[in-house]
Design goal:
By secondary structure, this protein is an alpha/beta fold. It has two domains: 102 residues, Enolase-like, domain 1 (2-Layer Sandwich), CATH 3.30.390; 201 residues, Enolase-like C-terminal domain (TIM Barrel), CATH 3.20.20. The protein contains eleven helices and 14 strands. Strands 5-6-7-8-9-10-11-12 form an eight-stranded parallel beta sheet. Strands 1-2-3 form a three-stranded antiparallel beta sheet. The chain has a three-stranded antiparallel beta sheet with strand order 4-14-13, with no helix packed on it. The radius of gyration is 19 Å and the shape is globular.
Length: 330
């Protein structure tokens, strides 16, 4: 019996605009895959990343072109060779995991060989804005234990200080999204330390991160745009102290688990993140997040409406989506 593949784009409005150093967005543009086989249907979702030239349309085209190979039994490892890392591969890889779990009557965690907790403590995000705006946003999150702060190069010290003043007890992750230069990275070290920042994420453009080689920061620096796959890790280990694993960068859960293993082998801190997405994307990310040091899976929280059976947030504790949405019984 052949497998069948369906791929389509979806657009999910946000409650408020999401702003980072590269711009703002008002909706999540997603690609959704369904793979059916023998009465079971596996689903997966990807969020195309414009920085890498991905669009919903290009991802759907990639997936439709691969439909004959999927029908013939393409495996997850073969998929890694068939498509480049990105949202299309992520959506299909996760759909194949989901399909296997449903056909076996087991959970994805069981297939991986781990026991799922079902909850993580996630960061909530203060988007980029004027320092006073960011302080006001942080005040609403002051009781949460972990906050991610989006900054740019205009006045990051003031932006961070405003958030710290409004949320004095929270653990802070600062994310510059490639907006800084080397001089600013060095100049910001005392400010980051004074604000008790736990992690500085991707301060330099990925193409310039060789400047971090041998640098010993006061605050650990985390590779996001600089790290996609397990094979990236050896070249980054003298530049970064942490990596951010996102399934839309790795191109699926299969490659994300490979990256997790490589990061641990090199003694790196691990954060699991996501794009702005629905809980169909976050469900597979839980398989990595539960094994991570930091978690930033608040993507669905930005949506005006999430999928049925999605994540539930209670005082920064994020409960995994229902197995009926993705991953089978837990």
């Amino acid at each position: 019996m052949f497998r069948t593949l369906k791929a389509a784009g979806e657009h999910w409005p946000l409650t408020t605009p999401f702003r980072i150093s590269r711009g703002a967005r008002t909706q999540a543009d997603l690609v959704v895959v369904e793979v059916a086989h023998g009465g079971a249907v596996g689903r997966g979702e990807g969020a195309p990343i414009p920085r890498y030239g991905d669009t919903v349309e290009s991802c759907v085209a990639q997936l439709q072109a691969l439909a004959p190979r999927v029908a013939a039994g393409l495996t997850r490892r073969e998929l890694i060779e068939a498509l480049p890392p990105g949202a299309a591969r992520n959506a299909l890889d996760c759909a194949l995991w989901d399909l296997e779990a449903r056909r076996a009557g087991r959970s994805v965690a069981d297939l991986i060989g781990r026991v799922a907790r079902g909850t993580v403590t996630t960061a909530l995000t203060v988007g980029l804005g004027a320092p006073e705006e960011m302080g006001a946003a942080a005040a609403k999150l002051a009781d949460y234990p972990l906050i991610k702060v989006k900054v740019n190069a205009d006045d990051p010290a003031a932006q961070i200080a405003a958030v710290r003043a409004a949320a004095p007890d929270a653990v802070l992750i600062v994310d510059a999204n490639e907006a800084w230069d080397t001089d600013l990275v060095r100049a910001m070290q005392p400010h980051l330390a004074a604000a008790r920042v736990a992690l500085l994420e991707q301060p330099l453009p990925a193409a310039e991160d060789a400047a971090l080689a041998g640098f010993r920061p006061l605050v650990p620096i985390c590779a996001d745009e600089s790290c996609h796959l397990a094979e990236d890790v050896p070249g980054l280990a003298d530049r970064y102290q942490a990596v951010n694993i996102k399934l839309d960068k790795t191109g699926g859960l299969t490659a994300a688990l490979d990256l997790l293993a490589a990061a641990r082998a090199h003694g790196l801190i691990v954060m699991t993140g996501c794009m702005i997405c629905t809980s169909l994307s976050v469900a597979p990310a839980f398989q990595v997040a539960e094994q991570s040091d930091f978690v930033d899976l608040d993507g669905p929280i930005w949506l005006a409406k999430d999928r049925d059976g999605g994540v539930r947030l209670t005082e920064a504790v994020l409960t995994a989506p229902d197995g009926a949405l993705w991953g089978g019984s837990r």
